User: Fold this.
Amino acid sequence: MQVTNEYLQNLRQEYKSATLDESDVDKNPITQFKKWFDHAVEAQIYEPNVMTLATADKSGRPDARIVLLKGVDDDGFRFYTNYLSAKGKELKRNPYAALVFFWPELERQVRVEGTVEKLDKETSEAYFNTRPVASQIGAIASPQSQVIPDRSFLEEKFEDLKAKSEDKAIVKPAHWGGYIVKPTRIEFWQGRRSRLHDRVNFEWIKNEWVRNRLAP
Assistant:
């Protein structure tokens, strides 16, 4: 098969699995998110906590990648990474981000926008200590987003750290930890027929969530 513009233009999917009405949505969007997330888990969607994280540099140029949601509560959405990575540097200069969850099997999407803060050291350490040892070593071995000569450079560094860490507790490196995205906007999207999708949007205005329906 050859990918052509014509082929792409004719790729279509009719969304028809569910509907979304304002009256069916919880007044607290975090509670609603958890309900949808539970549905994704029950549907056995592969890695339902996968999310796109979009940041921007100081010039406003956007950057996006996939990360994993590792916590959610009324304060916001949590993830962990290398603070010296591209995303870490961008968040230091411009502490705003957007998240996108997409569960195609349910024809659902959730979009989040908000401010970003680092989690405290104790919280990051507590999570780091729950990670598999190989993941702990990987967080130390990889100079994330930096240029490296080849794959063997990474593997050799990993094996060296692994040998030195045998029978020892691995300490979280200072350059690794968590962030929390504190939402100011959350949108729930349900695919519908004829591209007339349902969109219910929440915005944090004057210390309360304001809910509205958006045109698709």
